[in-house]
Amino acid sequence: MPDYGVTIPAPLREQRRMPFVIAHRGNRVHAPENSMAAFRMALDQGVDALETDLRLTKDRAIVCMHDPTVDRTTDGTGAVAGMTLAELKRLRLRGTDEHIPTLDELLAAFADRTYFLLEIKAPAFRDPADVPLLAAVLAAHAALERVILASFDTAILDTIRAAADYPFVTAPIIATNPWPPAKYPMLGAWWPLLYVNPVYVWLCHRRGQIFCPLDPTPEPRLRYYLRLGVDCVLTDDPGVTIAALMRLTGSLL
Length: 253
Fold this sequence. Notes:
There is one protein chain. This protein has helices at 10-13, 36-44, 85-89, 103-110, 131-140, 154-163, 193-196, 200-206, 222-228, 238-249, and strands at 20-24, 49-56, 62-64, 115-120, 147-151, 169-174, 186-190, 210-214, 232-235. The chain is α/β, with parallel strands linked by helices. It has one domain (10-249): TIM Barrel, CATH 3.20.20. Strands 1, 2, 3, 4, 5, 6, 7, 8 and 9 form a nine-stranded mixed sheet that branches.
C-alpha cells in the first residue's frame, strides 16, 4: 500500500455506517451556489464538509466561484481573472443581496465548524509562485488539516504538492478513465465509471485511497454507492440526501 505522506481529515478515517456528506457549492438547490447562505444552510442540515470552487481575481484574491466568468451567477458580466476583488464585491449574486465570498471569508465563518473540499479552478495555480497565496489563507485560519484540494487539472495538484510546505491531501477529478490512478490519496470519479468498472472503489480501498463519486444528485444511486462502500457523497441538496441515507442505513446524525 502506498504511503501518501498526508494527514487524512479525522472523520474520513473513522468507521461509519453512513458516508461522509459533502455539500456541493453549499445547498445550491435552496440558495445561490457558493454563497454564504448556501454554506450556512448546508451546515445547519448536518453535512460533514463544504465543497466550493476557487478562482483568482486580477489582484490575486482567492474567491469562491465556479465559472470563469460572473455572468451566470451574478448581476454583472466579465471574467473573474480580469476583475479586481473590489470590482467583484460590487456585484451581487443573482436574486440576493449577497456578494461573492472570498476563501478568507468562508474560512473565517466556518473553519471551526467543518471540513472543506476545495476545487481549484484557477489555472494560475500551475505556477508554484501562486501556491503560497492559498497556503497562507488556510494557515491564517488554522485550516490546513481541514481541507482536501481537488481539480480536474492534475498539473495543478502536482504543482501544489511540490511547492507547498504542507503535505496537502489532493484529489484528482476523473471524467473518463475507468481505472483509478494510484498516485493520489483521494479520488473523485464521474459516477458512470462505477458502472463501467464495478471494482473501482474496491481498487481504491485496496490501496488505502478515499473515494467519492462525482455525482451531486446521488439519491437514485445511493443504494449502489452503499453497496460499493464509497467513503463520501456529494450533494446539491443536503437535507434530501442525508434523509435518504438515514433511511437506507438506519443511522442518526
